[in-house]
Amino acid sequence: MAVSSVQARTEAFFAERKAESNDRLRKVLIGIVVVSLYPILDQWLGFGLLGSLIPILMYALLAMGLNIVVGYAGLLDIGYVAFFIIGAYAQAFLTSPNSFFIRQGLVPGFVQNFWVAMLFSWVLAAIFGVLIGAPTLRLRGDYLAIVTLGFSEIVPDFFTNAAGITGGPRGIGQIAKPPAIPLPGDRSISFSSTDHVSWFYLLLAVGVLTLFMVTRLYDSRMGRAWQAIREDEIAAASMGIPPVSTKLWAFALGASFAGFAGSVYSGYVQSVYPDQFQFSLSILVLSMVILGGIGNIYGVLAGALIIGSFDRILAVKLTIPLNALGRQMESWPGIFGDLGSFFATHSLTADRFLIFGLALVLVMILRPGGLFPSKQRAAEMKGDDDNFEFDDYETNQTVRSARRKEA
Amino acid sequence: MSATAERESMLKLNDVHSYYGQIHALKGISIDVKEGEVVTLIGSNGAGKSTTLRTISGLLSPRQGEVLYKGNNIAGTPAHKVAGMGIAQSPEGRRIFPRMTVLENLQMGAFVHGKVDPNDLARVYDLFPRLKERVSQKAGTMSGGEQQMLAIGRALMASPKLLLLDEPSMGLSPILVEQIFSIIKDINKQGTTVLLVEQNALMALAVASHGYVLQTGQIILQDNAKALLANETVRKAYLGEE
Amino acid sequence: MNWTLFFQMVIIGIATGSLIALIALGYTLVYGIVELINFAHGEVFMLGAFFAGTVIGLTGVTSENSTIQIIGTLLLALLACMVFSAVLNAFIDRVAYRRLRNAPRLAPLIAAIGFSFILQNIAIYWKGPNPLIAPKILPREFTQYNILKEWAIFGGYFDDKFIRFMAKDVLVIGITIPLLIGMSWFVYRTRIGTAMRATAQDREAAALMGIDINRTIQVAFLIGGALAGAAGMVALIYNNSARFNMGFQYGLFAFTAAVLGGIGNLTGAVVGGLLIGLIWAMSDGWMPTVVPGWGAQWTNTVIFSILVLVLIFRPAGLFGKATTEKV
Hints:
A: mainly alpha; B: 242 residues; Rossmann fold
């Protein structure tokens, strides 16, 4: 009973989704065209925001990857930054002249190319995903979350402490950038850190590629298996979906995209050091996924845009009028008290923790599916309890099994 | 004992509808339990018997209908308050506290009173001598039958006016089943009104004065116990006769 | 091998360990009842430490005052911190976790992570991002007081070059032990403690016994918070400083302790706390003299590895299931 119902519901859902996805594809293509015209607009209107958009695009890459793990497979990974570090350091090890491995002559010349190294980093992060995931994915959801956090603390500690290989706290510099692309005539597209336009398009291309791959994955057999496991692991297992290896795929693929993002990142900033990668980055990306709409890739992209632009643009820009306001308020201490001087000197960049903490809490309480929920996920995150007041886990279990029986 | 019109109604359900999420589990249940009676709800698995008890005891609040206890509507009252009104339940699956001793479990049963009444304890030991032998054993390590006794004994420690028993014969050996039912009779004789949910319809109807037959959330038959025992539908569906 | 150093680290380890045990109890109490890893617990501890600084500062009592005044102030601050953190913890439960009791298990965990960040940011607004220095309330003679050297019963054999058993260590242990006793008395001997244990074992059955589940859960958050508040004040005095991000490390170490002792198991949390404290002290102070290339920078790695390994291989804790009663 339970088994066939999961199958039937899943298939019906996928048929419906296929129709939606064609409609979506058109919108997405329009979106991509609009975004890709942005640099022209930016230059034309003199916004000068292109440099800030690059990290936001990287956040989007990370958010899409984490969405596979958290949104699709339902595994709470709060140490996602671990794989980002691995990708970034892999790129550094493979391409920097300061790299221990290059100095030992262990890296063949062709691998030292940015693009080739990126592929290696991608695969390497996936391998680490398997290594870390394989023993841990059997654990219950909350324990898994803590284990991922543990790893994400151990990994940067290792890079800090194994100074002989990793350069310690100062890290590794002079990481390769993408080789310049020659154009007809004498010109070429180069990728130094100030070439915002070329980086913008590079990241956009990588982002679109990722988006394409991730949506294809979700519509594949694997996507269906993730969904089944997430909804009801036991029923899915009895349908012949192996729970651990299905989760492992999600975990490893998610890890691989973080590695991918990490390698591009280290090529962009050209130096990596452990302090760049803290727990807060994992949570920053998690809050994008959750705010945007857990499981809905477009929602997740919106989440990345909202939180990323606060983090990178708005916090800085809005501080200026806030400080100005504060200085005005200081003239009336009778009304505003110390608030004026607080506003006059306060920088909104100091509020990042507050913002993504609030995002997590408020979304969970008020709109568990996120701002742009995937229908399915929203219902799951909410639980089943519109109607009975007793706050109880057991009761929920009863409800779930009753639901299964009914269906 | 047969139901008589003069008795006061202790518990009355009027057109009660309960839901689990979207699932309509009880579709308009009305029952009447008079003071001093044993009333039984019989029916197959998933008919809504346990849901009815959960609705009475406040673990579930009905979306519609009344639960009148001694004339007051207690529908939607949280479980801990219902317990304080003198309704005790021995729940489905026993649900004893596995890491507490037998004595501690019995003490938990008297939680509504604040402290244990030695008379209640003596009465429980008297009804279940086995529990007395095992006072200091961890409840989770006892056999299923012993746990069942403990669950009933624990409910009795509240010295309830109304005792809700959910499948007390579940998983017990035939001898133990006989024992449990004779104890239910004793409890009733000592003055406790009992609402008994059972799959073992034969035994249940033998101790009860009145019975209700549930099917998919509705009452399809009700009568005094003797009449139900004679009823052809009941005999076919619930007593396993062809 | 340097035995003096070894035993010195044992003393420090026990002092830090009892601090961690206080925090670990908060994780284990709450997890035992609602199966939630209260990720914000470390921040409740940290704010307790900040609050201690404020309260002591407000009284204006310093090391110049009389001994009675100093002890009185410390007790007052301890009590204030416990109340403050208890209320804060219960408040978080009330506004966030309680609404999520029926949601999937991960929803309250995500909310807890969110709260942990919110509280860190509040701490920054309150005291700034730099370490807060503890008010000078303990007289210098007291902080420098070496019991082994000063007390006559030790016959004057020990000087400061030998193991130092500082009055400060005694202070930490002396605050912790009564709290532990008080808490086990509460859980095992009082009516509401009994209700907590019943609720932890079977929530619905407990409700049928007449136990108000929401109130009982609230009490668990209050007690957990109170212990974290006490730990916060002790940490401020012991370490002489506190910082907005200290809750993360202490919190995770304490969570490791709780997991090590079997989460939900009160005795286990205390034993786990002492173990983690000892490991911490050994890795920081003693291992560098024994293992070439070892340094305090590896401590985090060691403890997080323990966390990961225990969760993977012994999720029920070192002592498995068949031990003392859970909450």
